[in-house]
Design brief:
234 residues; alpha/beta; two-stranded antiparallel sheet; 10 helices
Length: 234
């Protein structure tokens, strides 16, 4: 979706669902209006300048697509991570409903443009074995599907963070979390219906990071994934 489409969607939700509980903070239910108020965002503040989700292209520190950290920050509407979790996540307090509604709205536009196709991205992190099941359930629950849209699976290279947090023991754990559920669904679709449904809309993987950082190692100099248990990124 474009920044303009996101902006219109947020405006609509501010008007129609300001009293909807969208999160729980310190054990207390928080409404959408309370989140916007604490972020200092009012109705008339919802504009392109305040939203700040438009990509910039070019060399240097402001290149959105060359620096993953900058790219990632572009997905924080109004610079507030909570609004990213509410509007742009599939696994949250409202079970990704806002994200599904926005996705389907844009899909309807794509469907009317019969000769225009799109390749969208959605993330799998590899930090746990149930990520695919949760994401695929979101696809099936909200019937996310469009003939003109295919999905690229975006995998941020965050192994050092997951290793440091104890989410994985080695790089093999991360690879297993990313690929094993797909192998299982391919071999036995009947037992993994949600994942198989989602797989039919996928076209590939995209590994993303700060592309300004180079590497001085070659593939044959690395140990096996099971042996890579340090906190450095392979």
């Amino acid at each position: 979706f474009t920044q303009r489409q996101l902006m219109h969607f947020i405006r609509k939700k501010m008007k129609e669902e300001s009293d909807t509980v969208v999160a729980v903070e310190n054990g207390k239910p928080v409404t959408l209006q309370e989140v916007f108020s604490s972020a200092g965002v009012e109705d008339n503040d919802v504009n392109a300048d305040r939203l700040c989700c438009m990509a910039s292209i070019g060399n240097g520190q402001h290149d959105t697509f060359g620096r993953f950290d900058i790219f990632n920050n572009k997905y924080n509407p109004f610079g507030d991570k909570r609004l990213r979790d509410i509007f742009l996540k599939t696994d949250n307090h409202i079970e990704g409903r806002f994200m599904a509604e926005l996705t389907k709205e844009v899909m309807e536009i794509q469907a009317r443009q019969k000769f225009v196709c799109a390749e969208w991205r959605i993330s799998i992190y590899g930090r746990s074995a149930d990520e695919w099941a949760k994401l695929a359930k979101w696809f099936c629950t909200y019937k996310i599907k469009c003939q003109q849209v295919r999905w690229m699976i975006q995998v941020p290279r965050l192994y050092p963070l997951f290793r440091k947090l104890g989410k994985v023991k080695n790089f093999a754990d991360m690879l297993r979390n990313i690929f094993q559920p797909l192998f299982q669904a391919s071999l036995d679709p009947a037992s993994h219906k949600d994942i198989f449904y989602m797989m039919q809309q996928m076209v590939g993987f995209d590994s993303v990071d700060d592309e300004s950082q180079g590497t001085h190692s070659v593939l044959n100099s690395y140990p096996s994934p099971e042996e890579w248990d340090s906190e450095t990124n392979p």
